[in-house]
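#struct-pred

JT: dropping the chains for the assembly here, can someone run the whole complex?
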Amino acid sequence: MTPMPAGPRIAYVLDPRFPGGTSSGVAEELKVTARFGQVAVHAIGSRMFGGREVAPQLAGVLEDLGVTPVWDAPVIGADIVILHNPVFLKFDAALQSRIVTRHLIVVAQENFLRPGGAEGFDVAHCMGLIDRASLALRKSVAPVSGHNRATVAAWHQRFGLPPGWGVLPEDWFHICDFAFLPPTAAPRDQRGRLSRPGLEKFPPRAVMDLCFPPHAEANVILGADPLLTEDTVRPHWTLHPFRSLEVDAFFRLIDFMVYFTAPTWQESFGRVLAEGIAAGKVVIADPATAESFDGAVVSARPEEVDAIIRSFLAAPERYRDHVLNAQSAITRFSSEAFAARFGGILEGTLKVAA
Amino acid sequence: MILIESGERTEKSFDAKLVFARQLASRGHRVVLDDRVLPERLDRNQKYEAAAFLATLDGAAISRVLVIGAEAVSQETMLALRGFDLAPEVSVAAIGRFPQRQAAIGAQAKIAYATGHEPTLVDLSTLLPQPLLADAVLPLAAVPARRVEDGGPPRLFIFLAQETLDNPQVLPVLAAMDQLPDWRLNLILPGRGKELIKATRYDRLRVLGYSEVPPATIAALADIAVFFGDGVPGERMAAFALDLMRSGGAVVDCTATGAFQASGAPVVRGGEDLAALADHLLHTVLVNRQEIGRRAQESRWLTANGIENLERALGLPVPVAGPAPVTDRPTRTVFLPTNGVGLGHARRCTLVAEEMAGSGDIAFAAFPSCVPMIVEKGFDCLPLVQKSPDHDDEFANDLITYLRLDRSLRPGDRLVFDGGYVFDSIHRVILDKGLDATWLRRGLPQPNQNASATLDREPVFRQVIVPTEAFDELNAVGEMGRAIRHVGPIVQRLAAPDAAERTRRRKALSDRLGHAFDQLVITMLGGGVASDRAAQMQALAALLDDRKRCLHLIVVWPGAVVPPGLNGWRNTRVVQTRRALSLCQIADLTVSAAGYNSFHELLYHGLPAIFVPQVASFLDDQDRRARAAADRGLAGRVKAQDLLVLEREVTAFLDTDKADGIRAALAAATLPTPGNARAAALIREGTAQ
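RK: done, full complex below.
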């Protein structure tokens, strides 16, 4: 067990039963922020996740850190309070815990708006609950990526955050401390995608057909539960239900990760794309999703995917260079980078007289 | 094409889709339901209602998707929506009552993910406020019904909960109300209510099951609706009440909770006591009926809950007023004979149809066995599908009949049905389309036949034309209902051949069959469906085989089953023909069953005959018919089992002057004027009114 350092009190507020990226991101983050002070984790039993278990990736880190989550504490007090993903409050009528802090940071995680401008969730309701339950010198929303920031800003412009709230200038990015695997020297037309099985993760079938054509050597889809129930059979697709294959094993089956989602939804950060890059793959995604990765993800329209893959197959050295550059690019999402960013924010917070 | 989907895959949701589809279709919108997502349990009525809308869909045919009950969208629905691969220009709408903003956002998002299209959100909480039922999946909007006015007393529909029947006073009270001339009483009961009533001595009460007929159809028929029970009894009844109010009818709220009134609907509040209802209706509702209807139509609540609001919110074209326009093609008259055990129903229909020449578009819908005869008469014929034990449902063929009639008929067309049992298809299409319907129904039931089930559907017909029997004692004196019209016997008339013509035709027959004869005997004992007459045919064949220069023709309908072993007789031939009467005209004797058509044809053409009645539980009383002729000396009559008597009778007809005596008696008999033309005139009258 790592000894808990003395220092500023850092409190996390979240529903630890979040599946997927939010819990993974928080777990990685806790390992970093625990170095800066006394970390407490306040679990909120929201209606959204009633009946579920704590996410295993988070439970493991909490155990390693020796942090026991406190469920539904009446009062949460800390120098800095980080509330992850306000969406968990969307079905609740109130946030019962009272938050008292110098700086309350709500990490957006979800996009406030979907492509086209529809609300991603009832942001006003969730932010209102948090606002009414908190007393803080400073209240901030922290976007996790450039795209996520754009949706927060657009939402704020249309609906308005509660008075006194601001948007952190720095992105509260997901730590991507994945071990980097070297790219293959002889890439083949082996394509694949990995996602949770929600329909928002899948583009229309016509796009899937463009991305995973019969002439590809392999089309491996992990998290393909919705596709397994469809009437249309694509014998050239190898479909695996969600969690039926280890992620490492999945990446060993492909050389290109092709990732498009429903046009009415977009990843807020795209942690899975960073995983693909770290695994030594060329990752191809729609322009909006790729934008957050500053060239590490190849931006493409579905009809361009085939040509892009052909060009990489024709020039294996270009494949290798692209992967190495991409891996280098995502080091900006390292734990060190996050520690530097968090340290700065914490320092700024502590400077402010309470 | 508008696809209607529901958020969940429950039976309630499917039923809501059915009602909503019909509502939109009545407004002229082209609607379709996906046949891949039928619930596991689909009752008989739902199958009829769904049939016209179900299709195996190609996404390209869809121009718009409406998801009702969108406050809860299941994974199955999402996957189904995804499967359509909707084109970019397709518009999608999510319709529901969203208790919180998050519910609306969530529903919108789910549908957006599944379709790839951002749906328009239609929140009924604000669009159609104060609903009759808060948790309805169906968007409860008032749709103007296509009123079917017939000038009779107001049509009263009373909804009762099934448990109401536990009170022994309920049915006597209703039976008493049914006797009042101030209204025409109809009951609506859910569950087994209808079945329970039909098992009592009050089985003459007219009862509809809860989902037997679509709400819009009942609303078109009703003038007053009364609701008993704890509250608003489900979505179908809520829709019925809305449509009725919108159409100027009166709704009386006798529920324990005053649920209709509490929602703000323009209803009349009534007491919970059924015994007090008649007086309440007589002294409060009937005298103010027009005003009640007018005020309801003008109420702000009803305007706020009108279908037009929903249409506008969905971007659907709003019809200018009233129901969908009707095409301007001439009124069509469709005759639909049941197939029965022979072709008698079809024959009768053609006789009446021939009298209607020049009365516009006349066509038939008929089962395969009847089609050639109808076409031969020069009528167009829509073929129907024969019932088959190989069908999944025993009524599967009738579903097809319903679909074909639904597509062939328009409001205001005439339907003439000839048969004993009114199929669901016929009952429904008459109600759905507001057809001018006539039931051609011959009488003379057997004494113990229960007519309750048959007569239950009689009220949907404007009239019942009963072709009378030739003899008075065979005509029921009690059958004098509101819409019963008696006409003379409907019978085929052929010119009698003179002696030369008779000789010529007998010679032609002899030449054709290669069988010289001086005596010609026709046997027409049926195709064996109702009664097995193989023994009688064999006996006749044996008897006539000993005669020299005798030809014995066993005449059956084309396609009828002929008993084996008849081909071995020297003098006997089996003939399949639709022109039996022509043969009888040149015969010396006809041995026939006593079905309505054969009996009257032989009588009216003065032909000597021995009748061997057929006996089956579903047939008319052929024995009484045969006896009536025999008692008057106009025919012979032999019971089927009396084979020796049959032999004696045939011998008497052929070897004595008995046949001549019968001919003379027939020539002297006064028979009623045939009713063919009168029946045609009565059918025509309806549209002229």
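JT: nice. Residues 499-668 of chain B form a domain with the Rossmann fold fold (CATH 3.40.50.2000). Chain B touches chain A through 19 residues (CB under 8 Å).
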